[in-house]
Amino acid sequence: MNGSRIFAVVALVLAASVIAGCGRKSGLDTPYQAQVDARKEAERTGAPLPPEPEKPEEDRKFILDPLL
Length: 68
Prior knowledge:
By secondary structure, the chain is mainly α.
């Protein structure tokens, strides 16, 4: 009984490690950049174009920025 419990724990830890490693490894896209990319993709494929993205305002400082 003890061996099967250890096996189950090891299997769960391994599965959690594999799932945590999934995803795209690169920088994050800003919402504006994602809209620009979506519009370019729609133009390329001939799909209906999403609305023209608005240029974001200049980045404002936030009180918690120094903590990050």
